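Running log. JK asked me to keep both predictions on one page so they can be read side by side. First protein, sequence followed by its tokens:
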Amino acid sequence: MTKVDIPQWPVRAVVNLSAYRENLAQMRRFAPHCQQMAIVKANAYGHGIERMALAALDAGAEWLGVAKASEAFQLRKYLDKQGVARDHLVDTPTSAMMRSRLYQIAAMGLPTAARPRILTWLYAPQTDLQQVVKAEIDISVSTLDQLDQVSRACDAAGLRCRVHLKVDTGLCRAGATNQDFPVLCKLARARERAGLIEVSAIWSHLARADEDTAAAESFTKSQLSTFEWAWEVAQEAGLRPKLRHIAATAGIIWYPESHYDLVRVGISGYGLSPNPEIASSWQLGVRPVMRLETNVVQVKRVEKGAAVSYGGEWVAPGPRWLGLLPIGYADGLHRLAKNRGETWIKGQLAPIVGRIPMDQIVVDLGPAVDDSGDPVPCPVEPGELAIIFGDAKDRLFGGIPGVPSLPTADDWAEWTDTINYEVITGISPNVPRVYVEDQPDC
């Protein structure tokens, strides 16, 4: 990853588009015969949905997955402005007649990276799905009410929407229950015959594919069995969807039998492992895409006994050099990292000392005197680059013998008792995203 020098932004998230494309290519190797959906929900896991979506298409992804319909709609408008072709919907029977067009009975084909599709799966009963249908976005349906909602929107828009019927195989979030799914399929088939929708996929979500236990494996296999049952139910109802998808990152990596026709690449696309205790990102062949960095704004010497930050929870054990960094919990650093987290400054790890305030932290830069009591100059000057987390194997900032590696999102997850997903998605939207590409070796 290349270095950046943008002093007008005291905090920035540097996003490596080259790494993202390489990660998607690596995940394609796990499931080479499937279509690939790049999950760019939640502002692309905090990386910036617009640029990451374009990078995903550059990497060959045929699908973009966005949870909330409102975010999917905004992404469609952006892609239109960028000249990305749509995989168009066809008319309903009524709109075909009104437009003097031939009504198309045949099912639609599959998307390509040149004409990708967007899937959305979260919307409220009051959501204006007519606009979503007009944006030619695939919509997930889990309930009879949602099927009615989508059908009404299709009738109003005059377009036959592509629907993904979701079955709850055990996660107990969205998806039809085993009791409701047969009815949902029958009614969906009726709406197909009426020309309002096309069921293009059956899908679900694995709950424990990222766990390395016998119980989790048994549960995952039971989910796959339920999914196979749901596919048969859909066939018996007369549905002929072209796609089945249940595998996200963990399923792609550890359950090849879950690949089916389409896989959804989420956390691994951003260079992180769904469970670092089983396999690190390095072991999976992906590398972190985001580097969060800032600059030292002040250094000072404090004497033994000096209490640092609110509440005085850290006290200097002797004369110390301290550095002030303009980043805090408003930027996305969790307060649980107090006296636990570390930063990387000038080739050394500098621990965070004291509580983490809203917009600044204090780090320990080392002793201000040697063992003989003689003064030790401060090892850091104001303006020095400070990295909060990044790629531990980034050779620009470490990853070589004798130089400490950068802290990672996994490290921050450990320090704050959470998961790497929350670390990267929690970076504030107010932190600028700076997009870079790998620089060729000289």
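And the second, directly underneath as requested:
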Amino acid sequence: MLTIEEARELVFNRGWLSQTSYDFRSAILGRVALQAYPSGASIYSVDDPPGGMYGLVAGSVKVAMAPGEDGPFIGHIMTPGSWSGYGPAISGGARIIGLTAGRNCQVLFLPLHALNEILARDPASWRFLAGLALIDTKIALGAMNDLTIRDEFRRFLAVLLRAGGFRRGGGDDDGLVWLDLNQSELAHMSNLSRTTAGVFLRRLKAEGHVRIGYGQIGIRAPEALRALFRRGA
């Protein structure tokens, strides 16, 4: 378990907040509280009333969406350094996504009134919130691009890599990174049947690319998976 000092240091140097000004980072981190959630716990849900922001510092968080008549379903996985929950500061409205702890996790919580006060005191700091929105837009566009891949196996690989944060690079082929996703969730994210996703997972396991645990999928070698994606075989 991280202390609040360790949690503040992590987001000060990693992710969106590290890309903002020193004064803005200091203002945010001076108003946050450290919270813990057990695996499977809801942090907030789609259509919940307006609330504050959450910065993940340990564990993982599943992001649920409910567009149109469908959902909610898991669309993305947050990793430490990621932030979410700024929508109500922009719209004043209800939540449009939901967050659920993928495993035991810790987050820094910034109340909505505190965020609004920081933005009112320094209107120029809105550009930092816009920067976070741009990060999320890039993630969403990447997900849309992956789902347009016609070949089912390549589409599955693209989504698996994105879920681990390895879609465009990164990762150690000598390590093992566990994703808090079950087979059904990964199948839905990939727009595949559970049966098809199962066939692909078993192939990747047999080839040594992944491990399969209870409610988890472990990526052994991101670069090898990216090479497999490029080959399309």
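Observation for JK regarding the second prediction: The chain has a mean pLDDT of 91.
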